[in-house]
Design brief:
By secondary structure, the chain is α/β, with parallel strands linked by helices. It contains 35 helices and 25 strands. Helix 7 crosses helix 11, helix 17 packs across helix 20 and helix 30 runs antiparallel to helix 31. The radius of gyration is 34 Å and the shape is globular. The relative contact order is 0.06.
Length: 859
């Protein structure tokens, strides 16, 4: 007999929320509450594991007035307004069900109980189990229907059948309705008979069987109870009507819709998005994938499939490219995976010639492939990177784990085969072969799908003309590295250590005793107990909290300074030394497939977050120097995001200002404050600059007021005046939001898509974040695409001219080159020209190149 699981969605979500509201408030890193969703999924998984159903339906209230409201205006009228944190999670749990491919259903005019009631009686030849915490549903129990009742919190479940209903609750399933008719239900505001509680109602039902039986024997009942029953007969009958679950509603669905075939990959994407990694499941491979994975695998002495369109994979462990062990190489043409041992491959000139040629080849992570082949002095040309393609189609696919899960690779984890980076293990040959067979073969199939998806999504040009060429440029930059003078870092470390000691002494003096300044617990005691500063509920010692306490006590300033010097010392002055390699350089890793806006990021170490706003932080840049016989040539775009905004929003006044090389912040101040150019003060310009850049990032009036230290009303007036001056900007921003609300994403000038699910969130703050992201992403993303185009063009021109100069760093809008002294003028002209002509905009692009001996001195 097949089993149907019917889930009371509202009841389960409410139970999950209130069971954890006070003991486990969960949120994502950007503040979205998830405790109810987490609890719901946990309960659902437990029920599925217990019952092993073939069909599942999660029923929901539609939120509209039902026939019960029409019969009784006060139905559910006593319910309190829902917590905002619970309301926020209602669309999120529906998103989970959709991503996991779990059928859900709601219908106007009836409640979830009525959907469940109808479904439970539609298929008597199936075993039906109802999952709920609501005892009202016990009335549906019969010989084919039982209720899995939630009892304590979200962990204890109790299966109730006809026998158990009578033993545990003292009534038969059908008497659950009669019970409500007599005693009512405070939670649903069902009135019942005034003055009759559960004990009395049970006694009456034990004596007379039903409400009708009670009234048929009313003369046998004595005293005030008889009076109450007589006075409330209509109310009792109404309560019976309200409490009776519908069993014959007309539903626009069929049992086949409820077929339970959970999409593990889809639910894992959801769980990662909402940071519930403890609930992640091992992805089940469907029959189609399994069938496709049954491809031939052959270990060969020479490749027979050296032809256009193959996929390529290296059998290599997970160490850095310079130290990784390469065991072999595999190719797949869709029918067979051919594998060659690495030593054999290095002798095969025909195979090496094929790799160096222009035949199409698909890989995963082309930049790593370039590094590995270069290390072995083998030339390779790759035209399709599945990692980059997948990221352009869905920017949530920003890791290997997300990639293989999304595209259902039937493989073991590389960790299981090779060990983790830094902890490699001797890989078993059989396991390696099986991994290569599955991975290289599936990569071929996925590459075909991705090529089609790029065209469908309009990303083909972005992929071919920008991202793939850029991968080669970034590989060269990583290989080049940047020279570092360790003696300068050592001197900075020594200086910062002295400043840390000095700040610590001042902190001890202000506190009146010594303590561990780096201990949040000890620091909280000093600040909030001993010094009596106003503490929040969490007695936080985080930087943003301390900033707000800055003027309450001089100790705060010293603590903030101590933390700044501590970071400069540990993260940079000492931390960077660990990354200096034998060639005296740091070789950072650039990431193309990480940030949602398309900006590049770097790691090991991150060289893009070295502060330039603070002089102490900027001093770290002195250690980054030109190589021997060279200088650094640096060029960055001037106000690129404002220029991009002016172009994309068609802002005539801004366009005119940029064309005439006017100071855009002074121009904005003139318009906002209605003054002449000579009347613009430094304060006016600073405020105009804050608004200019704030608008690009979707800054609110509150955010602007915080930055300028003015009232929110003044900030609001500034922004309104700004939009009056530049009405097309407001129009453009509104269009971005509307596009995002309609499509779920926004696009750059090069059709890069950024998906922003927050735009539809029920939580106001999350939704506002989504709107700001929708306004900013087209501008920041187009600017990021622009500098990528410039990098590609510069790289090409340098090759054409045979330049010895090397591009070594990209810091958002800035490019830095290591340039032989005899190429300085050539490179200054080449870099400036290519950056300024990377795109044709309605405003001129400006990028001046400067020369220095270290990064600190660069303009």
């Amino acid at each position: 007999m097949s089993k149907i699981l019917l889930v009371d969605g509202n009841a389960m979500l409410f139970r999950a929320y209130y069971a954890s509201k006070y003991v486990r408030r969960m949120t994502t890193s950007n503040g979205i509450p998830t405790n109810a969703v987490y609890g719901f999924i946990s309960m659902f998984k437990k029920a599925v594991e217990l019952l092993q159903p073939q069909y599942v339906c999660v029923a929901w209230d539609a939120g509209k007035p039902t026939f019960r409201h029409k019969a009784y205006d006060a139905y559910k009228g006593t319910r309190k307004e829902l917590d905002e944190d619970l309301i926020v999670q209602m669309p999120i749990i529906r998103e989970y069900l959709d991503r996991a491919h779990i059928f859900r259903y709601e219908q106007e005019g009836i409640e979830a109980d009525d959907i469940i009631g109808t479904l439970s009686k539609m298929y008597p030849d199936h075993e039906t189990v109802i999952l709920s915490s609501d005892r009202d549903l016990l009335q549906l129990i019969d010989d084919s229907t039982s209720v899995l009742l939630m009892k304590k919190g979200i962990s204890e479940m109790h299966l109730v059948d006809e026998k158990e209903c009578l033993e545990s609750f003292g009534v038969t399933p059908s008497q659950i309705i009669e019970l409500k008719g007599l005693m009512g239900d405070a939670s649903d505001n069902i009135p019942g008979v005034k003055g009759v509680g559960e004990k009395t109602a049970l006694q009456l039902l034990h004596s007379y069987g039903s409400v009708q039986g009670v009234y048929e024997h009313l003369d046998e009942i004595k005293g005030k109870l008889k009076e109450k029953l007589a006075e409330n007969k209509e109310t009792a009958e109404l309560s019976l009507y309200l409490a009776t679950i519908v069993r014959d509603a007309k539903l626009d669905m069929k049992l086949e819709d409820c077929l339970f075939q959970i999409d593990d990959a889809g639910q894992n994407e959801f769980l990662r998005k909402y940071e519930m990694k403890s609930l992640l499941v091992e992805v089940k491979k469907n029959d189609e994938v399994h069938e496709k994975s049954e491809r031939r695998f052959e270990v060969v002495d020479s490749f027979s499939i050296l032809k256009d369109g193959v996929s390529l994979a290296l059998d290599v462990d997970q160490e850095e490219a310079g130290y990784a062990n390469i065991y072999g190489i595999a190719l797949c043409d869709g029918h067979v995976v051919e594998y060659m041992e690495w030593d054999q491959f290095l002798k095969d000139e025909k195979a090496k010639s094929f790799l160096a040629g222009n035949a199409s080849k698909s890989v995963y992570d082309v930049k790593r492939i370039y590094h590995l082949f270069k290390r072995e002095q083998v030339e390779v040309q790759i035209d399709f990177d599945c990692m980059i393609a997948a990221f352009l189609i869905d920017n949530n696919i920003n890791s290997y784990a997300a990639f293989i899960e999304k595209y259902q690779f039937d493989t073991e984890s590389p960790d299981e085969i090779y060990g983790k980076s830094g902890k490699v293990k001797l890989a078993d040959e059989t396991m390696r072969y099986e991994y290569m067979r599955c991975f290289c073969g599936r990569l071929y199939e996925v590459s075909i799908q991705l090529k089609e998806d790029l065209v469908k999504n309009g990303c083909e040009t972005l992929f071919k003309d920008i991202e793939m060429p850029l991968a080669k440029v970034l590989y060269e930059m990583e290989k080049n590295g940047v020279c570092v003078d360790q003696s300068i870092l050592d001197a900075i470390a020594k200086k910062n250590l002295a400043k840390i000691d000095e700040c610590t002494r001042h902190i001890y003096e202000l506190a009146g005793h010594e303590f561990n300044v780096n201990s949040p617990k000890q620091l909280a005691v000093v600040l909030y107990d001993e010094l009596g500063l106003k503490a929040g509920k969490k007695r936080s010692t985080a930087v943003d909290v301390l900033e707000k306490l800055r003027f309450q006590h001089p100790i705060i300033e010293e603590i903030l300074k101590q933390r700044k010097y501590q970071k400069l010392y540990s993260t940079y002055a000492v931390g960077l030394v660990k990354h200096i390699q034998n060639d005296g350089k740091i070789h950072t890793t650039f990431h193309q497939c990480l940030t949602t806006t398309g900006r590049l990021s770097s790691s090991d170490p991150n060289l893009q977050n070295i502060s330039v706003r603070d002089e102490d932080g900027k001093e770290i840049r002195k250690a980054f120097v030109a190589s021997e016989g060279c200088v650094l040539v640096s060029a960055d775009y001037s106000q690129i995001e404002l220029r991009m905004l002016a172009h994309m929003a068609h802002v005539d006044k801004m366009i005119d200002a940029f064309k005439h090389n006017a100071d855009i912040h002074t121009e904005t101040a003139m318009h906002i404050f209605h003054v002449k150019k000579e009347e613009v003060t430094s304060l006016m310009r600073r405020q105009a600059k804050a608004v200019n850049f704030g608008i690009v990032y979707g800054m609110s009036a509150f955010g602007l007021s915080e930055q300028l230290d003015i009232s929110p009303k003044e900030a609001k007036d500034f922004i309104e005046s700004y939009f009056e001056t530049y009405p097309n900007i407001q129009k453009f921003m509104n269009q971005c939001i509307e596009e995002c609300e309609q499509k779920g994403y926004v696009t750059t000038l090069f059709n890069r898509k950024r998906y922003i699910p927050e735009i539809h969130d029920k939580n106001y703050m999350v939704r506002e974040f989504g709107k700001r992201a929708a306004m900013n992403a087209p501008i920041q993303g187009s600017s990021a695409d622009l500098i990528k185009v410039a990098m590609n063009n510069i790289h090409q021109k340098m090759e054409e001219k045979g330049c010895k100069s090397k591009l070594i760093l990209q810091i958002h809008d800035e490019l830095i080159f290591d340039v032989p002294e005899d190429e300085v003028e050539v490179m200054k002209e080449l870099v400036s020209y290519e950056m300024e002509h990377a795109m044709e905009l309605s405003v001129p692009l400006k990028a001046e190149a400067s020369v220095s001996h270290n990064w600190y001195e660069a303009k």
